[in-house]
Design brief:
By secondary structure, the chain is mainly α. It has 20 helices and no strands.
């Protein structure tokens, strides 16, 4: 074996399942990628605007354009993830993001800022936060797949809360440009451990999902359920998982119902979240810092995704989505009754638990319906629905308010689309694969 091949095959030996190490390194990628996320830009934009005198629309247009472009790029990234795995894609995403972040620290014009921001968001979202890390989780886990996917959903909001504080501290001390440069250097440095740790599938290192040891195919057929410990993943279970191609999945009603439901749910929640601070200030009588605190609490409660992942193992991700969407609609109606700081925080708590579930549960549904072989391409095909709903919601909410002069139509629209999304996901039953054959009958 050549020195190059030896280097490529070398990996860290861990006393625990290797998939957990991969998720941990993936969390670092999500951390730095969150530096160009909308929630972070919204929290640190004052440092940029005060120094440059640019319009707020520069930040808003950059964030929206980056989201939409990431949605267009995600299907392509998903197919690359299925074919090549994350070992090359995630380091490439980290290097590209690092260059963009470092460039942001040296921008002197609006067009330079927007170009670096849009490109950084378009590449980093699918490679470091979205479809590639989720494909990684689906490939390395089966029995604990929902928990792994829930963790990938938690990384971004937690990272956002940390980066806003870290960026602010650096910006106050040495300026916002230095903050972007430091994050850029960290992102570029991160490419090396990603290359060393990441693998396409556990089979590449002699394992099966959840840490089961690979077994010869002729032995799998004779394995009995009574010969293994309860709660473990057997080789037979992995081989018997029904895997769809992307072409097959996109021909099913199930995929399109899930996609439309995702679009409506994200549109309804992003529209409300984008206008929540001004609503609480103008309608509930809260100060702007108090209203921002409510938004921060609801954002941080994306940690409840871990609980949703636990519930999904027991009552299926689809039923959890129905429950979360209906709950979100009810919480939006409750917002009409918010008139104090206490009731506002109750809303923030309930809203955070209900609306944050959609981002992770929908990808659990896809994994359960279509398997892991083409998961990247299938999840990538769903991303345009998600990105479209996110961008449209942030525009539609303010437009409705500007046209009507009232928040009521916006809130009613949000509640209505959540209910419609719940109905659609209820109808999106697990499809049956054409000519599905069980090789081990």
């Amino acid at each position: 074996m050549t020195t190059w091949a030896t280097l490529l095959n070398w990996r860290i030996k861990t006393p625990f399942y290797y998939g957990w190490l991969i998720l941990a390194v993936g969390a670092l990628g999500a951390f730095v990628a969150t530096a160009v996320a909308g929630v972070v830009l919204g929290g640190v934009q004052s440092f940029i605007l005060e120094d440059t005198g640019w319009s707020r629309s520069v930040i808003g247009v950059s964030a929206s354009a980056g989201v939409w472009l990431s949605g267009l790029f995600a299907p392509f990234a998903g197919r690359l993830a299925d074919r090549y795995g994350p070992r090359w894609l995630m380091p490439l995403g980290a290097l590209t993001l690092g260059v963009c972040l470092f460039s942001l620290g040296g921008t002197t014009s609006i067009w330079q800022f927007m170009l670096a921001m849009i490109l950084g968001r378009a590449i980093s979202q699918p490679f470091l936060i979205g479809v590639v890390p989720r494909t990684l989780a689906v490939n390395f886990f089966l029995r604990r797949r929902n928990t792994a996917l829930a963790l990938t959903g938690v990384f971004r909001p937690v990272s956002g809360a940390i980066i806003i504080q870290l960026f602010s501290a650096i910006a106050i001390t040495v300026g916002w440009r230095a903050a972007f440069r430091y994050l850029g250097v960290f992102s570029m440095f991160l490419a090396l451990p990603m290359f060393l740790v990441m693998r396409r599938r556990p089979e590449d290192i002699g394992l099966l999902p959840d840490g089961a040891r690979a077994t010869a195919p002729e032995q799998v057929g004779g394995a009995s359920s009574g010969s293994r410990q309860a709660g473990t993943t057997s080789p037979a279970a992995v081989l018997l998982e029904h895997n769809w191609t992307a072409r097959e999945a996109l021909k099913t009603w199930g995929f399109w119902l899930v996609g439309i439901s995702t679009f409506l749910g994200v549109m309804g929640s992003s529209g409300l979240s984008f206008s929540l601070v001004p609503y609480l200030h103008e309608e509930a009588g809260l100060s702007t810092p108090q209203a921002a605190g409510v938004l921060s609490v609801s954002t941080l409660l994306a940690l409840s995704s871990l609980v949703w992942g636990h519930l999904a193992d027991r009552i299926t991700p689809r039923w959890c989505m129905v429950a979360a969407l209906i709950s979100a609609a009810g919480v939006v109606i409750f917002l009409f009754q918010v008139n104090s700081l206490v009731s506002a925080y109750i809303f923030g708590f309930l809203w955070g638990i209900s609306h944050s579930a959609l981002e992770v549960l929908v990808y659990m549904v896809l994994a359960g319906y279509f398997g892991r072989t083409s998961y990247g391409a299938i999840a990538g095909a769903l991303r345009p629905f998600e990105a479209g709903g996110l961008g449209l919601g942030q525009i539609l909410g303010p437009v409705i308010y500007d046209v009507t002069g009232s928040y009521t139509p916006m809130l009613l629209t949000s509640a209505t689309v959540h209910v419609i999304a719940a109905a659609l996901i209820f109808l999106a039953r697990k499809p049956t694969r054409p000519q599905e054959v069980d090789e081990f009958v």
